[in-house]
Amino acid sequence: MKRPKTEKTAVQQRIDEASKPGLRAASRLLVLASLMWPVQAAAAAVLVDRWANGEVDGAFVAVAFFILAGFARAALDHRAGGILFRTADAVIAVERHTLLSREARRATQIVSSAELAALVSQKLPMLVPYLTRFKPAMARVRIVPFLLLLIVFWFSWIAGLILLVAGPLIPVFMALIGIAAREASNRQMVEIGDMNRLLMDRLSALADIRLLDATSRAEDDFATRAEGLRARTMAVLRVAFLSSTVLELFSAIGVAMVAVYVGFSLLGEIPFGAWDSGLTLAEGVFLLLIAPEFFQPLRDMAAAWHDRAGALSVLDEMSRLESTTGRQIPGEGDKAAVLTGAAVVNTRKVQVMRGDQAVDLPDLTLHPGEAVALTGKSGAGKTSCLMALAGLIPVENGEINVAGVALSDETADAWRTRVAFIPQLVHLPDVTLRGFIDPDETGVDPTKALNAAQASHVVAALPDGLETRLGETGAGVSGGEARRLLLARAIYRGSEVIFADEPTADLDADTTAKLVEMLRGLANRGAIVLVATHDPDVIGQMDRSISVEVMA
Ligand SMILES: Nc1ncnc2c1ncn2[C@@H]1O[C@H](COP(=O)(O)OP(=O)(O)OP(=O)(O)O)[C@@H](O)[C@H]1O
């Protein structure tokens, strides 16, 4: 009865499918390359035989065969290697893109960004040795040893029998070791993710750690984690070394036994084993050269065995992530057909989910040219409302209409091109300020927009002005300055709709007044300006206000 195979996950099936043509082509070339060795072995055997008999006839032909087959083997290996690496790179590029675009669209993140970074940058590349070493080694194991066994049996049933007994022991032991390898790799993968999460967490809290005088505790945490990772990595290496040792042992015993048989047979001590009168010198040399090659595909497979275990752990993690469904940000995060309607915004009985909490949004209609304040108690749902209107969180119930169409997966991308969203906490990418304000590289001077957003002095204070790199590794700017830079970008790009979340928080009265004047100016020029705020002065200067109420 056939044993049921372990179900392949969707990720595994997709990767198998995508890598199949490349792997198939490369495996054919590799099998062909392996079969060059019997040609070389035959040429070497003829050469030794002629030399022992003092004949030179045909020696040059044998040498030529040996060299030509060697070149053919190297060329085939080289070509196969190229195909394999190109295939693996392409598969990983697609998987990385799929993974990042899916996780970027999640409304609620299910893994930390540190774990995701570890998966994308450290774990995904572990599929390369799986695709370039393990898979082709498996393909060769299925063909080459059997063909070589046939050849060996043709000359001697004893040599054939030795290989037949020693060969299968290797896969049996590898399968046993494989279980341990899989578990060790799983534990190592978890540890890599945990280490990255701890690193990100502690780095983002460096100032707090110093303030709380907890530096040595943080160091101890790291030391413990690093020790854990070291132990897990050593466990993987132990399994890898153990598998290599087992394999080397069996292949050495197999080759030695063939050598002993050939030696004694040539000395006439073992008169049986060959099909007729006994082995000739050429046949003996040929068998001696073939025996190690019989084990070579098995050795390659064993050397790549822990690559398989590592890759399967990565595939498991990818499958778990892929099978966890959840709410998604609407749209594809891609370019989309333009929405032609006037930028009127309208909501009806909209409810959004924030974590497990349902947040009800007020029914509202916004027209171009309006400056509106969004008010409400802290936690009432002002930020949620702005995000929903900008198409940054999905709608659970009700409907949002924008530019004459329902805000949906199909329309969200196009809508967002018309919207500028200014959050409370701005994440600045690691690009120059010029690149940040002008991502499409239009080359138009951003000075006017920066002046309008009260941000010109921010630029003046930066070491390289507009060419200063921002973001994590660049020059820092304050929260209020970052929001003004984002406003400058909205002005520069001519955004028709501006959703600003407490844009005047942390600003002095003078800057607040100028900023509000600027926002009013944008509305006067036809933009929709919706500002979430607690500031009564700001509320007073808007055309009207809409209140977000906490539902009972
Ligand atoms: N990422 C999140 N995950 C889970 N719950 C959230 C999340 N963001 C907000 N919430 C919850 O949703 C509710 C609305 O939050 P929201 O930030 O929209 O309120 P807000 O009116 O903007 O508050 P504030 O004036 O303090 O900024 C709050 O109860 C909040 O705890």
Question: Could you outline the blueprint of secondary structure elements for this entry?
Answer:
Blueprint: H1 10-34, H2 36-52, H3 59-104, H4 113-123, H5 127-141, H6 144-155, H7 157-204, H8 206-211, H9 215-267, H10 281-303, H11 305-323, E1 345-354, E2 357-360, E3 365-366, E4 371-375, H12 382-389, E5 397-402, E6 405-406, H13 412-416, E7 419-422, H14 433-437, H15 447-452, H16 456-461, H17 479-493, E8 497-501, H18 509-524, E9 528-532, H19 536-541, E10 544-547
Parallel strand pairs: 4-9, 4-10, 7-8, 8-9
Antiparallel strand pairs: 1-2, 1-3, 1-5, 5-6
Helix pairs in contact: 1-3, 1-5, 2-3, 2-10, 3-5, 4-7, 5-10, 5-11, 6-7, 6-10, 7-9, 7-10, 7-11, 9-10
The structure holds adenosine-5'-triphosphate.
InterPro entries: AAA+_ATPase (IPR003593), ABC1_TM_dom (IPR011527), ABC1_TM_sf (IPR036640), ABC_transporter-like_ATP-bd (IPR003439), ABC_transporter-like_CS (IPR017871), P-loop_NTPase (IPR027417), Type_1_exporter (IPR039421)
Pfam families: ABC_membrane, ABC_tran
Protein name: ATP-binding/permease protein CydD
Question: Within the CATH hierarchy, at the fold level, what is the topology of the largest domain?
Answer: ABC transporter transmembrane region fold
Shape: elongated
Q: Which homologous superfamily in CATH is the superfamily of the largest domain? A: ABC transporter type 1, transmembrane domain
Give the count of helical stretches: 19
Q: Hetero groups bound?
A: adenosine-5'-triphosphate
List low-pLDDT spans: 1-5
The ordered H/E elements are HHHHHHHHHHHEEEEHEEHEHHHHEHEHE
The share of residues in helices is 55-70%
Relative strand content: 5-15%
Give the class-level CATH name of the largest domain. Answer: Mainly Alpha
Q: Tell me about the largest β-sheet.
A: 5 strands, antiparallel
**Distance between the first and last residues' Cα:** 63 Å
> What is the domain total for the residues?
2
Class computed from helices, strands and strand pairing:
alpha/beta
Instruction: Give Rg in angstroms.
Output: 35 Å
Mean pLDDT: 86
CATH architecture term of the largest domain: Up-down Bundle
User: Could you tell me the number of beta strands?
Assistant: 10
InterPro entries: AAA+_ATPase, ABC1_TM_dom, ABC1_TM_sf, ABC_transporter-like_ATP-bd, ABC_transporter-like_CS, P-loop_NTPase, Type_1_exporter
GO molecular function, one term: ATPase-coupled lipid transmembrane transporter activity
Domain ABC transmembrane type-1: 143-310
Main location: membrane
